[in-house]
Specification:
Distance between the termini: 30 Å
Shape: globular
Structural class: alpha/beta
Number of strands: 13
Bound molecules: fe (ii) ion
Number of helices: 6
Helix content: 25-40%
Length: 259
């Protein structure tokens, strides 16, 4: 089985980058499943029904989210209704959406789990206990499991990788929008990277127009952020796995787009 995970898609430029590059990635690598983090898909922050639909139509088999999951109220109903979208599992039980799901293609089943870190982010239960619960629920129903650990701190994500090593096929970190250089298969067979990075404009400050981000840093005033349109890249992780769900390779994709 081959899996492609695509880091946080930022705004329209991120969506266009994904649409422009995915066909070539499919030709070259033929992933069985494509999972996309969409927490910044709508104008750089959050996701809407329209942008979620666009990501699914572009070829995402599943969409993961993060701390911006609930930015747009109009998407709540879709989060409840659409089984291909997950938000952090360690959010309050009654809040919109689900934390894990199973998507199927050609008779193969991929479990997808989204959790949020607790360091500098809000969640109501431990992501470590939460993935244990999700993995036990998925144990009979999935041929492979991908975990998106949406977290700020590298330490928390590294720890999560070790926590699930041998129990998940893939554990990717997201949220910082900056890729780390540590993609590998852990000894137990879990493909891991601390942060996949983002799919969006590298010419900004983690997606924001750099002059606006700099103005806020320099003046501490309330600056309205806009998404940068400079130098779009796709950041992803390609994983190959055996039939037993153990990963055999993990390759970072860092691809510039010409839009
Ligand atoms: Fe993000
Ligand atoms: Fe985030």
């Amino acid at each position: 089985m081959k899996l492609l995970f695509v880091g946080d898609v930022v705004g329209g430029i991120g969506r266009r980058t994904l649409a422009a590059l995915l066909p070539g990635i499919r030709d070259a690598h033929q992933p069985d499943f494509v999972v996309v983090n969409g927490e910044n898909a709508a104008g750089g922050v959050g996701i809407t029904q329209k942008t979620a639909r666009e990501l699914l139509d572009t070829g995402a088999d599943a969409i993961t989210l993060g701390n911006h999951a609930y930015r747009h109220r109009e998407v709540y109903e879709l989060l409840d209704r659409e089984p291909r979208i997950v938000r952090p599992a360690n959010y309050p039980k009654g809040s919109p959406g689900r934390g894990h799901t199973v998507v199927e293609r050609d008779g193969r089943r991929l479990g997808v789990v989204n959790v949020s870190g607790l360091l500098y982010l809000d969640a109501v239960r431990s992501p470590f206990a939460e993935v244990d619960a999700a993995l036990s629920e998925l144990s009979d129903g999935a041929d492979a499991v991908l975990i998106d650990m949406h977290a700020e701190a590298t330490s928390e994500k590294v720890a999560m990788g070790w926590h699930v090593d041998g129990r998940a096929t893939v554990c990717v970190g997201t949220h910082t929008h900056v890729p780390t250089a540590d993609a590998r298969v852990l000894p137990g067979g879990t493909a891991y990277v601390t942060d996949v990075g983002m799919t969006g404009p590298r010419g900004g400050v983690i997606g924001v127009k750099r002059e606006l981000a700099l103005e806020r840093f320099l003046t501490l005033t309330n600056v309205r952020f806009e998404t940068s349109d400079e130098d779009p890249w796709l950041n992803g992780l390609l994983v190959e796995a055996d039939d037993d769900g153990r990963a055999t390779s993990a390759e970072q994709l860092l691809l510039p787009a010409r839009l």
